[in-house]
Amino acid sequence: MLNVESLTKSFGAGAAVDSVSFTLGQGEVVGFLGQNGAGKSTTMRMICGVLDPDAGDAQLQGRSILTDRLEAQRLIGYLPEGAPLYHDMTPVEFLHFLGACHGLGRATLRAATDRVIADARIGDVARRRIAGLSKGYRRRVALAGALLTDPPVLLLDEPMDGLDPVQKQAMRALIARMAGDKAILISTHTLDEVATMCSRAIILDHGRIVADLAPEALARQHELGLEAAFVELVSARRRPS
Amino acid sequence: MKRSLQRVLIGVKAGWQREIRAYFATPLAYLFLAIFLFTLSIFTWDVSGFFDSGAADLAPFFSWHPWLYLLFMPALAMRLWSEESQSGTRELLLSLPVSLTGLVIGKLLAAWTVAAIALILTFPWWISVNYLGPADNTAIALSYAMSWIMAGAYLSLGAMVSALTTSAVIAFVVGVVSAFLLTAAGWPVVSTSIRGLLGPAAADTLAAFSLLTHFETAQRGILDLSSLFYFLSLSVLMVSLNILLIQYRRRSGQ
Ligand SMILES: Nc1ncnc2c1ncn2[C@@H]1O[C@H](COP(=O)(O)OP(=O)(O)O)[C@@H](O)[C@H]1O
Ligand SMILES: [Mg+2]
Description:
- The complex is a heterodimer.
- By secondary structure, chain A is an alpha/beta fold.
- Chain A has 2 domains: 2-75 and 152-238, P-loop containing nucleotide triphosphate hydrolases (Rossmann fold), CATH 3.40.50; 85-150, no CATH class.
- Chain A contains 9 helices and 10 strands.
- Chain B contains 15 helices and no strands.
- Chain B is globular.
- Chain B has helices spanning 2-25, 28-47, 50-53, 59-63, 65-77, 79-87, 89-95, 100-120, 123-132, 137-162, 168-184, 188-198, 200-208, 211-219, 225-252.
- At the A-B interface, helix 2 and helix 3 of A face helix 1 and helix 7 of B.
- Bound molecules: adenosine-5'-diphosphate and magnesium ion.
């Protein structure tokens, strides 16, 4: 469903993302791992058309984000890092604005809004100003926005960041419920989430993919388990070459 | 062709609705309207002595419009794009399958709508001038229309500037300064000194690009098509620059 081909981007000196390629199929929940600054957000931003790559392409069900931007974007639900929202709106107004941008008709939009409000469990705050909502609610409002059109591909950039354990648990349950017919890419820098949620882990270091495998296979690479294997992978490249 | 026009219109509608809500969900639009009308009254009644002249003529009222717009329109446009960058919502907006051209135009139209409301609320002037004597209402309507179109030119400049920065305050200051330059180039005080410094050709060329010069005939109720064309092409130029700036930032990542 998602086909990423040699995406490359540099900001001034050095490549932030260096020839990253992978594919995501239906039903896959993939953890996108890497330390801060590894290039996870930059890769996601290029996939969803927020940032133009220097080279490479991303195709969503065969539609290129470069040559067929709007059609490709129609297939993506994106949760940007930090879950930015319009604070002067209520969640309902926010969802209606997104629906207007998607060009949804009135009836479709109403049904979609009701569905994601229920899915993200934001019914009790749906008509309150976003500015006054807690971090956990805001994250769920942003997620509801990403789910509005029931897109086949979800890009979630650090969805758990800043959430307390209870909220994390709820977010994990929500993602698990949505998996199945979607392809989901979840960026994170914490490993336990990957072990519990993902069928596959792509590890990025200094803009390059250093591993692409099942979390269990990664854990087996080191006698001390997942975390040790991860540390070994990302520190290997830090040695001066 | 038809499909891409449809997409632009979807963007226009979404952008317009979003900004109209933002203006009126906060005290911003009300504050803007109140201060604008208050300032306009001070200038026309006190400074220009509107009633003292006794003439059934709105020229003194319209003559203040360019000067007020150069302050007020950047204030109305300053957060259109700067706030999207500042709050990170630009990230979300650019990921949506919506026409960027449509959004840029829609946001501008929302600000232009508030400007229209401000002009409509000046109706007491129109009423009082008719009370003073027989007024040329066709000429007045034309002045109003041109004033509104000129407001659009100032707004498009302000909106473009707001796409340059993440700070609404910087957008306001840069917007006012550039609007001032574009206005004052045709101000006699400035054009006489330019004439002295650079010669009459330079002074006339600069004045030809001044909003003030182009509004002169309109404020007397005379339709000058070249001025209309100037206001509209300035707006189109600014909208195009606005779109290009956002596209450029999509490439540079800044
Ligand atoms: N807009 C930008 N301008 C300049 N450098 C950037 C920009 N965005 C990201 N970078 C740099 O690119 C690298 C990758 O960043 P990012 O993709 O945000 O990493 P991650 O999401 O994995 O933490 C970092 O070194 C970061 O400083
Ligand atoms: Mg990141």
